[in-house]
Amino acid sequence: SYELTQxxxxxxxxxxxxxxxxxxxxxxSKNVHWYQQKPGQAPVLVIYRDSNRPSGIPERFxxxxxxxxxxxxxxxxxxxxxxxxxxxxxxSSTEVFGTGTKVTVL
Amino acid sequence: EVQLVESGGGLVQPGGSLRLSxxxxxxxxxxxxxxxxxxxxxxxxxWVANIKQDGSEKYYVDSVKGRFTISRxxxxxxxxxxxxxxxxxxxxxxxxxxxxxxxxxxxxxQGTMVTVSS
Lengths: 106, 118
Prior knowledge:
The structure holds two protein chains of two kinds.
Chain A: E1 9-12, E2 18-23, E3 33-37, E4 44-47, E5 61-66, E6 69-74, E7 83-91, E8 94-97, E9 101-105
Parallel strand pairs in A: 1-9
Antiparallel strand pairs in A: 2-6, 3-4, 3-7, 5-6, 7-8, 7-9
Chain B: E1 3-7, E2 10-12, E3 18-25, E4 34-39, E5 45-51, E6 58-60, E7 68-73, E8 78-83, E9 92-98, E10 107-108, E11 112-116
Parallel strand pairs in B: 2-11
Antiparallel strand pairs in B: 1-3, 3-8, 4-5, 4-9, 5-6, 7-8, 9-10, 9-11
């Protein structure tokens, strides 16, 4: 089965840039989606199809995908960006989520 | 308002059964694939199952095959998950979710907690 690997945690200083990676075999050939989840809340889609932002998601959130790594970038990080982030792809008729990354804003 | 509301969670003994429901409103339920996604306490997201608009196709994660059954009633705008032979490792918050505008899960319910314990 397909696996997606993310770093356990990422720390970023307030106002700086955080990059969260999502590793998978030839993930560049797939559409990657990203979700933000805050404690006690349902996940929220922040990036779909590698680099597209849903309505209402700030431009500070961006994404890229190439080779074996997809990346979610949070620019000008704010305290409210502190959350868990998950990547996700569709593979062989199943949906696969990454292992998740906790983002801490210092 | 587009909304998904799950219900049916609770405490069940190992080996027991439980049926989860997800009530949809604010969109044409019969036009969309629907999924169940779960999250064990302190753990990550895990996709469980999905079902095509007319119920003709269903897919499951390996760990629940043969034990869980996803179904839907388009006349009632409702999604279901019948869970049998429950195990401690099935303990999780169960979310229903769908892909309305994008081809990602852009709508989620608030979740319902399932605890499998004696």
